[in-house]
User: What shape does this take?
Amino acid sequence: MSERLLEVRDLKVSFATEEGVVQAVDGVSFELEAGEVLAVVGESGSGKSVTAMTLMGLTRGPNARFEGTARYKGTELVAASDEELQRVRGAEIAMIFQDPMTSLNPVHRIGDQIIEQIQAHEEISDSAARERTVELLDRVGIPRARERVDNYPFEFSGGMRQRVMIALALSCDPAVLIADEPTTALDVTIQAQILQRMRNLRDETGAAVILVTHDLGVVADIADRIAVMYAGRIVEQGKLDEIFYDPQHPYTWGLLGSIARVDRPRPARLPTIAGMPPSLAHRPEGCHFRPRCPHEFAECVKTPPLESRVPASPGHKDRCWLSVEDKRGEREIVPGEIGLEDKKGVGAAV
Amino acid sequence: MARFIVRRVVAMVFVLFAISVLTFFIFNVIPAGDPAVRMAGKSATPTTIHAIRRDWGFDKPVYVQYVKTMGRVFSGNLVSYINQRNVIDEIRSRIPRTFCLAIGAAILWMFVAVILGLYTAVRAGQFSDRFLTVLALIGISMPVFWVGALMAYYLGFKWEIFPNGGYVPLTDDPVDWAYHLILPWTALSILFIGVYSRLLRSNVLDTMNDDYVRTARAKGLSERQVLVRHVLRNSLIPIVTLWGLDFGAVLGGGAILTETVFDIQGVGQYAAESVSQLDVPPVLTVTLFGAFFIVFLNAIVDIVYAYLDPRIRLT
Assistant: This one.
């Protein structure tokens, strides 16, 4: 097995707000190996972005409380000092944010914003840093990079700005790249280009990627493993095929069911998951998905642990009390269902 | 840029013209505004008044008087109705005093306000922030004529720590120059420091929540670099605008109270004295002088603004 880069253990993040304590992340654990793409999937407010940003210390503040550990190559990130964090940020772990329209400083040239990061981590002359910046911009597909390095962000389109953000993130050869909904703010055609670009760069640089998204369609192309988050907890995690072809948690079924697919007869209405995600300040007892779950039964008032329930795949874990057999039965009746009939064909190919 | 300058110069001519017309006509219609009566003195005969009226051209139609007066403003021949001294010479001799007061105070208040605003924003909600916030509010609430008078009385007159008013030219003795100006600079700056530091504090707090500041942190910059290069740089833009306008007003003689309290004998004090005597020529000239600086600094502010924020284009 390859080297374990990042190990998150029982991470808890809560914020004190006027409505009470919001438990944004509640006991999240996962590992990341070199070169691997881990997708963290969930609805808005599931704690996926907070988890990602906590790894870089970006959620720190007077109202935030943290528990648990996140170990990156021997550095503990959750409790790291500001100096330690500064060394890791940008150089070891880099981040691409959701909205490229606002994530670049409007008053500085894009080249200077990249050079600034390179020089924060390396003793390098202005001209050498500039040269590298031009190469980076060229690599992420900015045409005429040598001229455009001196442009301001407002002179770029959204997709181009996201490429600049990717160039920025890659400028110090990070071992881990965290992409927080990198394509959400972009047109569909641009989304595909950006994802393609990220895939190529992953292959070229060998960086591990944590891809935070609410869009399972994005994940299918690029992820090795998937963690599904709901109301601050990971409710299911496993390899891409395990999640797509043998999903164990009813929430995952709902997510998969609500993808529009061109290879199926079009339903009258795209299936949705009934109800709303719970407020993170007042979460239901036991399984948080219980109030929205059509399969709820007596056991669900107890919190199900995240554990392996499918004997054949020990890495595939979920938080649902239903037995594997019951699930296979119940799952069939989920409207718009999931991918079961593909299972043979694709499964054989894997 | 050339187009911008041409447009601004044309606009300035219009503004100054409108201001001169307004000022001149206001003084023509206010009660007891007849200069001939006042120039003739208390027990003047109607003949004397009539003679003055004819000699000075006060019997001509108002627009003729206006054109003549404006002609004198530009040829430098305008004299005061009260003491017959040349207005342009008078202003010229007072300009260094007003400029020294304005430039020193503007640097002082901007410098202190940036430090205070940044510090209170970083410490937002803590004791030091609340304490300085109260101080700033007190500073905003204190009128210059009161705080200036207190300073002049206690620090200048009673305890003799600083000179009690007056002005020494910079070229005569730089140390004494600064020594005389410390109190006026401070008095003039207090209000501005209060306003600017509050404004900067709220701008900084807003900017700190912007996405690009998070990006800057994620790059691994030190907190200081994040603050100066990203937060402060962006929060200063509106403050610089305000600063330019206030600086223009003070340069143009707007610090009337400060100049008067500390007897600096600057342009502002001249304006105050002339207004109290309803002396139209100096009032008109000082008003134009002040308006010129406000319009001029406005244009400068726009240029600086375009430099600070590349999204702005000068047209």
Remarks:
- Residues 188-205 of chain A form the longest helix (18 residues).
- Residues 74 and 275 of chain A are 42 Å apart (CA to CA).
- The longest strand of chain A covers residues 4-17.
- The interface with chain B takes residues 56-58, 62, 82, 85-91, 94-95, 97, 99, 102-108, 116-117, 120-121, 152, 154, 165, 168 of chain A (CB under 8 Å).
